[in-house]
Amino acid sequence: MSTTTVAKATVEELNERARHLRSSAVQMIYEAKSGHPGGSLSAADLLAALYFSEMNYRPEEPTWPDRDRFVLSKGHVAPILYAALMESGTVDPDFVHTLRKLGSPFQGHPDSKKCPGVEISTGSLGQGISPAVGMALAGKRDGRSYRVFCLLGDGEMQEGQVWEALQSAHTYKLDNFVAIIDQNNLQIDGTTDEISPNLDFIKKLEAFGYDAHEVDGHDMQAILDVLDTIREADNDKPKGLVLQTTKGRGVSYMEDICSWHGQAPNEEQFNQAMTELEKGLDL
Amino acid sequence: MSYQLDTTVLKATRDGFGDEILALGKENPDIYVVDVDISKSCKTNVFAKELPQQHVNVGIAEQNAAGLAAGLATTGKIPFVATYAVFGSLRMGEQVRQSICYPKLNVKIACSHGGLTPGNDGGSHQAIEDMGVLRTFPGMNVIMPADYNATRKLTRAAAALNGPVYLRFTRDAMPAIYGPDEEFVIGQAKVLEEGDDIAIIANGDTVRLAIQARDALVADGYSVRLVDMHTIKPLDRDEVLRSVATGRIVTVEDHNILNGLGSAVSEVVAETGGALVRRVGVQDMFGQSATYDELMEMNGITVENIVTQARDLLNA
To answer: What is the pTM of this model?
Structure first.
C-alpha cells in the first residue's frame, strides 16, 4: 500500500515553507546573477501547499509510479520548483549555489534529464501542459490514482497550444488533471491588459468543460480549502484553478513591478529581500 | 546479391506502417498511437478500432499531440504520433524538439505523405524539408523505408529503439524490393548491389528509380554500387566510405537536395575527399498540384536523370 511520506502541515507551517521557498529562489537567482524572481514569488504559496500538503509523493523515490505529478509549464520560474525539490528532500540542498552553472541539475529552465523530480523539460511556453495531459491520460488508462497538477502563467495562456491541451483533457474526461493559472497580470513587455488581456479565465475554463475555481494565491487557508474542494469533487471534469497573485510577492520593491520578471537583485537588493522575507512583509 | 523490382506486388509504405503498428500493439500494451484526425490516411484506423485502450485521437491539434505523447512516454508507454510529414516535422517541430528530443523521450513520429507523393494536394502538403529539419535535432533518428516490407521491419526496429525516431512513409503504392524475411538494422544501409565504378545512394520511394538506373548503367557495362540508405540519421558512415571508394556518387531522394540524404552524404565526402557527388532530388522549390510523376519529372527525380548524372561523372 502506498504511503504519503510528506506529512500534512498546518497553515502556519505552510506559510513558513513558502517563506523558505521564496528565500531560496531569490538566493539562487542572486548567486546566478540571472533568472526570473517575479513569477517565482507569485507561485511560492501554491508550491508550498502542493509539495507540503496536497501532493502524494516520495522525495526519496522521485520516479515512484503512483506519485502525484507537478508540471511547471511556466518553466522560467524554475527556481521556485528547485526550492520546493530541495525543501522536500528530493534534491540535495547544496545545489542551491549551482543555478544556471555548467553541469548543474538546476538548468535555467527545468530539464527532466538532469534534475530528479522534474517530470518533463519545460521552458518554451505553452508546451508543458500537453505532457501533463499525457501523464494524466496514462494514469487513467493504467488504473492508477495519481493526479497531475500543471502550473501555467497568465501570459502563457496566450499560446495556442495551451487551449489544444485543455480541450484534450476534457475530451478524455481527465478528472485527475488540474490546470492552475498563476494570474499575476504581468508579462515581460507590460501588463497583460496592455499586451493581450486575460479576460475571464473562469469563463474560458468553464466553456472548455472544466470545473473551475478561483482563489487568492497568497491566502494559504483559502488555497488549502480550494484544493480540498478539487480533491473531493466527484465528476468526470478536469479541474481549473485560477490563482489571483502578485508578481514579486514578498519582496517590497519587486511587487507588481514588470521589470522584475527576469532580472537578478544586486547585493543591496538581495540583502533587503532576505531581511523582508525573514521577518515577513506587513501585508 | 542483386536486388530487382517486383512490379507484381504494389503496396504503399503507409500500409506497411498500419499493418505493423497493429501487430506491435497487439503484442505490447505499451505501444500507443496518437492520431490527429487523419487516421484513415495514416492507416492507423484499424489500430484505433481494435486497440482503443492504446489509442488517442486529439483531433486537429498536432502540437498537443506531440506533447501529449511525450507525457505518455514518461510513464513507460511507446507512443507513435501519426500524421502527415509536413505537420509531423514543422507544425509540431518545436514540440518534437522541446518535449521529445530535449528530454530524450521514447516517442516515434510516424508520418505518411512524405515528399511529393501527395501530388494533387499541392505544395502545402508536400513535405520536402522534413527529414532535414528532423536530422538536426540532437538524438533524433530519421528513417525512410523503401517498400512495404522494409517499412514493417523498420517500424518494428523503431519500436525497439529506446529514443525518438522520425519515420517517413508515402502515399502511393510502389513495387516491392524486399521479401518479408529481409532484415533491417537502423543506421545500417542495405547494399543492393556491389560495384566499383560508381555508387548510387537512394532512400524511400526513389530506391525503385535507382534500381532501374542501375539496370541501365549495368547494361552499358558499368559496375554499380547500389545502396538503400533508409536511415539518414544516424548515417551509415562506413557505407558512405565504401561508396566513396568508387570515386563517384549519385544521391537520389524525394526531398530537398538541401539538408537531406544528398547533404548528409556530401558532409562525409567533404571531410574525406575521394569522390564527386551529384544530388538528385527536389530542386529547392515548392511543389504544386500535379501528379506525383509530373512533380518528380519537374525536379529531375527520374531514372533518366539519375543515369545522365551518373554518365557525367563516369565521363568526367
So the answer is: 0.96
